[in-house]
Amino acid sequence: MSWQTIWRSTVGKKVIMAITGIGLMLFLVVHLIGNLLLFVPDGGESFNKYGAALKSMGPFLYVIRGGLLAFFLFHIVAAIQVYASKKRARTGRYAVESSKGGPSKLSVASKSMIVTGVVLLVFVPLHIWMFGMNKGAPPPTVMIDGAELKDIYTMVATSFNQLGIVVFYVGTMLFLGFHLRHGFWSALQSLGAMSPKWTPAIYTAGFVFALLLAGGFVVLPLYFYFFIDAPVASAGGAL
Ligand code: HEM
To answer: pLDDT band at residue 184, thresholds of 50, 70 and 90?
Structure first.
């Protein structure tokens, strides 16, 4: 089967959404594990060293970023097209929506997938602009073991000492939780991995996965806001 045939069919697009979605979920797991270094009580040394280690991957890092971006774009374009074709098919056909049963099809998460997806689509560029690019200003730096490193710890700590940013992150992570909960089992279903026997276990696994991941990302801003004072940046600006 050719690439075009897969892309043109709704089933093919769902499989692409599933594969790219699983890839993005794996990124989030790795990202959260890395971010847990923010809890190490060493003034950000571990977290900044981790950031520097990622940068030291050089061209390989750009390959990963390129892959991530491609996954992100394919996921979004396929999602929009599947949503649009479903909407076209439904228009005027059903006066009342009905569920085929089970806790699935008409759950809040399922119906709001496109809404939660759009929220994340707005969040990700803003997030990269804030933490990846320090809002366009030169990033603060710190000397660690004789090397000048980008002080991403100070960037995070300073941002999460601002109530508006904390509210924005906590709110968005709730949307992320809903998106992941539905996305988890939906991906497995599209890949044909859902058997009636395993369905309840997969729903539960999706719920626990979403709770752990979104919960982990929610705890971080709250932890900084309530327990950690923003350090004074040593260089750079616009935090
Ligand atoms: C409390 C939550 C989060 C914190 C503290 C955090 C922290 C960071 C930091 C510090 C960076 C920049 C790293 C660097 O420049 O070296 C970054 C990059 C990034 N984050 Fe997050 N993040 C959080 C949540 C998220 C979420 C929920 C998503 C996706 C839905 C996400 C997606 C990304 C992406 C795509 C990048 C760019 C990766 C790259 O440049 O290679 N982050 N994050």
So the answer is: very high
CATH number for the domain spanning 67: value is 1.20.1300
> What is the pLDDT at residue 238?
45
In-domain check, residue 237: no
Q: For ligand 1, atom 29, name the residue with the nearest CA.
A: 124
What is the CB < 6 Å shell around ligand 1?
A: 28, 31, 35, 51, 54, 65, 120, 124, 127-128, 131-132, 152, 156, 169, 176, 217, 220-221
Domain assignment of residue 15, given as a range:
3-227
Rounded-to-integer distance, Cα 55 and Cα 52, Å: 5
Domains in the chain, number: 1
Contacts with 22 (C-beta within 8 Å, 6 or more apart), sequence order: 187
Instruction: Please tell me the distance from the alpha carbon of residue 103 to that of residue 82, in angstroms, as a whole number.
Output: 22
Residue 238 domain-assigned? no
pLDDT by residue (tens digit) across 135-176?
Answer: 999 999 999 999 999 999 999 999 999 999 999 999 999 999
